[in-house]
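User: I'm new to structure prediction. If I give you an amino acid sequence, what do you actually give back? Let's try with this one:
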Amino acid sequence: MHTLGCKLNQAETELLASQFAKAGFQVTNNNNADVCILNTCTVTHIADRKSRHLLRLLRKRNPQALIVATGCYAERAPQDLNNIGVDLVIDNEQKMNILNLVKSELSLKETRSTGDTEIDNHFRVRSFVKIQDGCDDFCTYCIVPLVRGHESCLPAEEIINTIKARVHAGYKEVILTGTKIGTYNHNGINLKKLVDHILKETTIPRLHLSSLQPQEISKDFLKLWQDSRLCRHFHIALQSGSNSVLKRMGRHYSTEEYKMAVEIIRELVPDVAITTDIMAGFPGESVAEFEESYNFCRDTGFADIHVFSYSARPGTAAAKMSGQVNEKLKKERSLRMLALAKESAQNFQKKFLGQVMAVLWETETSQNTDIYSGLSNNYIRVFSRSPENLTNTISSVRLTRLYRDGLWGELIL
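Assistant: Good question. You get back a string of structure tokens that encode the predicted 3D arrangement of the chain. For your 413 residues, that looks like this:
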């Protein structure tokens, strides 16, 4: 099972893997699989290309396997995937029915139930839990509303029961995810109330929210972060630091409102990491508008910036706009932003040198090195050496120096 794209896709793949495991299938990473499933992404043309490439690779490495494509690319352009030898193309609406469709394709009337069988440790440190799907905003560049549909929310009780099951399975962190989780509202329970219920009714050691919009930030909401189990990391999508570009994008905030949200977060959540998304080369983006965006990102001091070039998506308003920026210029602007992202990340990390922080360890970076990698509560990548297996444990480290894309930490025994 493979996943491209967003955390929502990862949450859905995780759920599918659990369904298959409980039905008697074994999730494997080798090339002798009977079934290969790819949860695709179509947010950019590069995501489309990666989806096609990986599906061809899965076919080459597993020539006798049933190849299944699902997700947003499968929803948007199923004919593209049928033409490269995929056996089953399943849209988002049928995604959670893949188990039955695969069993039918393989002529399996019954598979043994394995009760509480869990998927392997590949998934067991951090779990993505879907709370919401769909988007009604229709930003001019975004394909998501066309492939994910209208906004819908899962019942709070179902989410809480899922998290309890994740705790029972050994997970140390849950990430609440969806297309637009800030709009969560089910039977009068909004995101603030949902998070409050989770903190009160489960024992999950760390709870993390995926991505929010600046207009969804309030002082009342941020009071929840008085509970140390909530990760001090906010991913607040920006897309552009130019108000005129934001207006053409159809975003529902200004840079002034964004700045205010950042200031409120930093005031009420100590040592917080704020990360963002930035698009380079949106249609009509002038030199002055790009410089506005660059300067806004520099002055904001993000902990990290996810940079991507604008990609025209079929059926979106921006694809028909005049002033399409050429690929060479988009690349140049992306490279400038990426350099800023690296500088910003290191500046943020340096603030914590000498401090002691708790780290949730993921895995050994390379076999037999005894060097483990994990994330702090504010999502700094931390590395440390240990003769003992640290995977899926939380321990305190003193951060001593820059190392790779994060910091080196000495374990405090």
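You can read the tokens as a compact description of the fold. Here is one thing that stands out. The radius of gyration is 22 Å.
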